[in-house]
Amino acid sequence: MNKQNAILAVVFTGFSSICSADYSLGKFAEHVITGAITRTATRATEHAIEKEFGTHKTKMTPNSEQAISHENNASPTLCSANYLNGKAPHIFNEKFNIKTQAICYPAFALMHSGITRTPLWSANHLTAERIASSCQMKRQDAFHPDPNLTTDVRSELSDYVRSGYDRGHLVPSFDAPTPSDQADTFTLANMIPQLHANNAGIWEQLESGARNLAVAGHDVYVVSGPLFEGAMIKQLQGRVMVPTSVFKAIYDTTSHKSAVYITPNTAEQTFKLVSINNFKERMGFDPFPSGDESVKNIASDIIKPAKKTNCK
After folding, report:
1. Is-catalytic flag, 169?
2. What's the average model confidence in pLDDT over 67-91?
3. Residues of the chain above pLDDT 70, percent
4. CB-CB contact of 303 with 288 (8 Å)
5. Contacts of 196 (CB under 8 A, 6+ apart)
6. What pTM was computed for the model?
């Protein structure tokens, strides 16, 4: 592991030392009470990053259709339709935004890391009308490196060859309402190395469950992303970091409910359910900064894993 990736491993564990492999809320509560551990880890992380990189700003990258002209956490941006109330997900410590670029596509937005060579998060908006359109399309695989990213920070198709991992979508192609939007979802900037059993199993079922909530007439905002925990993070070709878990945050403006679903990037077909605010405290990241705090305090089991989307 090179110096940058070693520091990044500290960053992701430094977000909060209370993250555990089993996502035990009991352990979470214990560490909240003894919060000095988290503060110490965060300070150590900041010093390591500043020493190696100095102070960095998030770089905004326009794509061929739309330009982004605001800082990472600013609102509104030209991606605002993909965010709850037009406000982008918020990473609290700017030092965690090293070598990041925001990319906006018409049907989704993402924050890409040039160190992990994956997105840190991807966001999209689901409605019954969008899913009705996507149900009419066949999947046309067209994986490609993202042209908005320079070759030194992006992943390449060759990184995934014979790696044992899928090119796993964060915003799934099935969520795209038009053929052009579907093609956009196949950018590698929207991909993480994902074990096939997870990608084609519980993760796909959670994706279908989110779409089915929209099909039922709910207005649904989704933010998905990888979690990297521990000091020894696997890498593809020594370049692309493999997440230990994957999360899907849901905010339903119709029922006024929300939750985060976290599933390990393994063959285990399980997930943990936590509230937005618990996730925020644990990870230093708020997927819905403009959401109602009373809604974000409760983990509501609002999507049911499903093997298919209820296309009408």
Report:
1. yes
2. 67
3. 74
4. no
5. 165, 166
6. 0.80
Q: Which letter does DSSP use for residue 187 in this model?
A: B
pLDDT, tens only, 175-201: 999 999 999 999 999 999 999 999 999
From the list 17, 64, 23, the residue with the least C-alpha distance to 40 is 17
Q: Which residue has the tokens 């705090």?
A: 293
Contact criterion met (CB below 8 Å) for 229 and 11: no
Amino acid at 266: T
Which tokens hold the place of 184? Answer: 């956009």
At 274, list the tokens.
């936590």
Percent of the chain scored above 90 by pLDDT? 68
- Which residues have a Cβ under 8 Å from the Cβ of 162 and sit 6 or more positions away? none
Helix (H, G, I), strand (E, B) or coil at 112: strand
CA 308/CA 5 separation, integer angstroms: 37
> Which residues in 140-291 belong to E strands, given as ranges?
166-169, 191-194, 220-227, 235-236, 240-241, 245-252, 257-264, 272-274, 285-286
User: Two tokens at 223?
Assistant: 């933010």
Q: Are 205 and 229 in contact (CB under 8 A)?
A: no
Q: Which two tokens stand for residue 63?
A: 């794509």
Report the candidate in 118, 90, 100, 103 with the shortest Cα–Cα distance to residue 49. 100
Q: Are 310 and 290 in contact (CB under 8 A)?
A: no
Q: Which of 31, 112, 125, 169 is catalytic?
A: 169
Structural domain spans, the chain: 3-296
CB 14 within 8 Å of CB 42? yes
Of 65, 90, 70, whose CA–CA distance to 223 is shortest? 90
Residues pairing with 167 in the sheet: 193
Class at the top of the CATH hierarchy for domain 3-296: alpha beta
**Consecutive H or E run containing 31:** helix 25-33
Q: At what angle do helices 36-53 and 3-14 cross, to 10 degrees?
A: 150
3-state secondary structure of 129: helix
Element (H, E) at 105: strand 100-105
